[in-house]
Amino acid sequence: MDRRAFLGAAATVGGATMLGAVLAACGAPGGASGTASIDTWDWWVSQSPWLDHELKQFEHANGNIQVRRTVNATSSYDKLFTLAQRSNSGPDVFMISTTTVPLNEQVEKGWLLPLNQWATSSWRRRFPPYSFIEGGNMFGGKVYSAPLTRPSPWLQLYINNKVFRDAGLTNADGSVKVPRTWDDVTRSAEVITRKGNGNTYGLGFGNGSFPILPWWVEVFVRPAGSPGGSSGPDMRSGKYTFGSDRNYLDFAQLLLSWNRKGYFFPTSVSISDEIARAYFERGKFGMTVGGVWNQAEWTQHGFTDYTLTTLVGPRETRGGYFYTQPGGTVLAISSRTKHPEQAWAWFDWFYGVNSGKSWVQEYNEDLSIYSQNNDPHKIRFKPFAEYVALQNMAIPGPGASIRNPAQAYVVVNPVQPDFGTILTGVFTGQIKEKDVLAAFMDLDARLQASLDQGVKQAQQQGHKVSLDDYVFPDWDITKPYHWNIPQYP
Amino acid sequence: MEASSDLPPREAGGFAGSPRKGRPAAARRSRASVWHRVRSNRWSYVYLAPFLALVVVFTIYPLFASLGYTLYQWNGVGDPTQYVGLQNFARIVRDSIFWQAFGHTLVYTVVLVPVQLALALTLALVLNDRRLRFSTFYRAVYFIPAVTSAAIVGVVFQLMLSNFGDSFSQVLVRLHLVQHRIDWLGDPHAVLWIVIAIGIWNTLGYNLVYFLAGLQTIPAELYEAARIDGAGAAGRFRHVTVPGLREVGLIILFLAVLGSLQVFDLVQVLTGGGPYYASEVVNTYIYHQAFGAGSFGGGGGAAAQPNVGFASAASFFYGLLLLVITGLQALAWGWMGRRRTRAVG
Fold this sequence. Notes:
The complex is a heterodimer of chains A (about 500) and B (about 350). Chain A has about 500 residues and is of the alpha/beta class.
């Protein structure tokens, strides 16, 4: 081959290669021709089997859409999401996190895509009444998210049946004796610990990753008639009542007495919640407090021999419940997405009735926002059916932002140490028993000051908010509260 | 003798006739001299440039950039708007948790530094002995923890002592060494000491290597002479080794103190400062303020919402405290140096 022929051949090959590259670059974005790829971020681990199943079904039904899912660590999700937004990047669809930036502020910053062109009035009516609320998942009349689950008694007391049976804590019919009161729990824990001989304990938890004792307050103090639970305030007075409501001190003393008597698994303070769940599964302790998300993991491990209850108070008659609010948020679509139609398609699938059915009845994740999916009789797995049967332990309660949507502008800064941290200090003995009440009263004062400050700042910014928005003096905490807002805004 | 361009400018100027005419000429020569030196050492500057760039971007710039944030309450997103003046500093000064964390940091430093340096020196003396076989192997063994990231060390010890520590504790119970199983990282009386012990083990290797390097600069003839003069092992250590290590020892001490006052990753991963601040050190305190919750050990830093402004103020305030401590260290060394000079004189 002479030099001219060689150069000609090289130019032809090079040109063909370039043309190919240019043609490829001009093809459809996101990979294969005609296929759009969207990114979605969440932090769900226990719920992954359901989510992955739905993604697979969605991609199968929508051959031209590919969804790339990124599961983030729960503890770092908020930071990652916020940093992504700051750098103008991030996923097309994401799970909403409001730890750093409240949702109304995220909307004002333009991070979320308004969904009204798809989330029409008829689409919204697919959901039960009070699913959408201004200041919750709607801002300025525009929809930004939607609820996935029906509000539920989100924490339960779990009982390891084998541990109870081994300790002889059974009824005449062989079923385990489920504790109904604080005294029942004390008696059961005493028997298990005594018979466990240093190998099995009555109670256990995992405080290592984050303070988890507030969960115990939710289950044990609410039914005593303390509607503020672990976060407060008591909406009858609009005040924080950790120090003034005797139930909190009583429970703290009960917790201390359980600890002193050695009923708790010894490393409960430092092990993580995940490890505590594994230890419960292995029968190292008989009772723990957790959420329904535990069940999926235990089922994966083949552990199903447990029972659950919730709202275990000093008396069998419950004097308080879990309180629900209208609205709800899980997913949102990024305003920067290049594929809004495809992102909405996944969003709509995620919130579909059929997805909700599989969420409850097939994967036993939680309650569905669609009541027709929440029939306990349609659920084969007994512990999950027990959970679904408890759905009435969560009843509507009042809320300042329901009364006044401008409350979304009130930012209440956290206080340090918070309730969970103080409970840890009480449990470890760093806060002496005689000082517990003073610590609770000090917490009330700091929380109240923070709330006052938040309201004051919102007022200074021109928002018509008041501390009176938090006061519902006629509220009967044992009955569902009637929200005075439109069912479908 | 002619003035050389290597001479310092003032001396060079001094040789250049009248001061009025000499100054510009001296300045020109000085500039030429600096440029000449830069050119002749250009590769040194090229090698230094990446490090310098990193220091500017990640240390110098943030230091000054964060100064403005100290005057705001700010969650780190968008521009800071909520001006609070010096309130952040006032809160830090009054915050008992900050001072508790500062106390823990001091305890960590005061215990870790002498113990670790004593151990490192002892091991260095042993490993420096030419008669010791496999000394290279032992040096590698002692240095391995130092090249392991503190975060990894924290994770592994967390698993050993806490999450999978149940069996470890049970062994101790069976051996009747303890009566009950111990929650090593959940016990507020034990947790800081465990962190210190792990800290000593983790960074021992660095000081060991520094001491070994220092020992190898001491001429063998000095030991030989001391031996001939009848000095025993203790005498040789006191009169040859200690004076020979004085200069490098001061640097090692300085670095060890500063490094200990900056402890962060080990504590954050191992305990998160908990339980109930029992192992909180200043840097974890700052981190929790800046980035919010997510602490191990049951509530080190419990701030659920980040406050970058407050964290910047805490960081700046701690920087000032470190400056004071470092200044006191320098004064103490100066005083000791003068005392030694007087004693020798």
